[in-house]
Design a protein that fits this description.
Elements: H1 2-37, H2 45-56, H3 59-62, H4 64-97, H5 106-137, H6 148-161, H7 171-187, H8 191-201, H9 204-232, H10 240-281, H11 291-304
Helix pairs in contact: 1-4, 4-9, 5-6, 7-10, 7-11, 8-10, 8-11, 9-10
Length: about 300
């Protein structure tokens, strides 16, 4: 038992250090640089070196007690900044997934509704282009069929907007929503109703993969929060601006990639293991998940929680 607690404490310490302290310490370093150099001497390495040397010679820092205090202060401050970044990341996650966007404050809701309408118009146009290329590919005469690359290009252009017709103001929100749309359309299954019970019967490796993907999504939104914190430093030090832009671009890419991976795992896990849930609930079925079984599961679980 002691070994278990020791291993758990070790893993928690590693996560605390890697997720909070390291990025927080780097942010504190950039902050100190920004406050020391300012805009006038933004790239003056010599000035920064002199300030560091003068500080290192301070008697209060050179003593053992002073070094312990400084180290403890840095660790505490770095962890505090890390907590702030994670808190901002929570708001970023809610914004990019936009699950409850219709309950947002009125000005933000209006902007979200405008964004949704614009994305729907773009998707409708891209979908029309894809359907036209798809119909052309069905021409009986092979010589009259267009290059398949045109159809694939049209499909990619549509997917860049949304994999299904947009229902949320963001790409990531629609990517998650697309999973529920497809399962309802193909199998008459309501994912929100079935998922809590399905999670309990999933094999451990599958649950670990889904948990890992969900954690990666949270870390990506936290990275976007760090870009906001670095953007604040541009008030004192302009080189923080390109740093914030690079971090924001990286976060944008990671959010999309991790959202897509998470949504794919949700959909595939549901399609593959829903029959196991049906067996556990005593619902008669044969073969894979289909509309009849999906409807039966949704009805059974919805009535049991009403």
């Amino acid at each position: 038992m002691n070994g278990l607690w020791s291993e758990l404490a070790k893993k928690l310490a590693e996560k605390w250090f890697s997720l909070l302290v390291l990025p927080g310490a780097f942010y504190l370093t950039v902050t100190a640089t920004a406050l020391t150099l300012g805009h006038a001497h933004a790239l003056d390495i010599g000035l920064l070196t002199r300030h560091i040397t003068d500080y290192a010679r301070n008697p209060g820092v050179t003593s053992t007690g002073g070094q312990v205090v400084v180290l403890a202060a840095i660790l505490a401050a770095a962890a505090a900044v890390g907590f702030v970044a994670q808190s901002i990341g929570t708001f970023v996650e809610r914004a990019v997934l936009a699950a409850e966007w219709q309950a947002w404050p009125i000005p933000v809701r209006f902007a979200a509704r405008w964004s949704l309408a614009r994305r729907q118009r773009r998707w409708d146009s891209a979908n029309a282009d894809y359907l036209r290329e798809y119909q052309n590919a069905l021409t009986p005469d092979p010589a009259s069929r267009p290059d398949p690359a045109l159809r694939h290009r049209a499909a990619r252009a549509r997917a860049r907007i949304s994999v299904e017709r947009p229902e949320r103001p963001t790409w990531s929100g629609d990517r998650i929503q697309a999973t529920a749309i497809r399962l309802d359309r193909d199998h008459h299954l309501d994912l929100a109703t079935v998922w809590p019970s399905l999670w309990l019967v999933l094999p451990d490796p599958v649950r670990e993969q889904i948990t890992t993907a969900r954690t990666a999504l949270s870390r990506a939104t936290t990275l976007a929060a760090w870009s906001v914190l670095y953007l604040v430093l541009t008030v004192w030090w302009w080189p923080a601006a390109p740093l914030a832009v690079v971090i924001a671009a990286t976060a944008h890419h990671r959010i999309r990639a991790t959202t897509d991976a998470y949504a794919t795992l949700l959909e595939n896990a549901t399609r593959l293991h829903t029959t196991t849930l049906a067996t556990q609930l005593g619902i008669d079925h044969t073969g894979p998940l289909g509309p009849h079984l999906g409807h039966a599961l949704t009805r059974h679980l919805r009535s049991s929680t009403a």
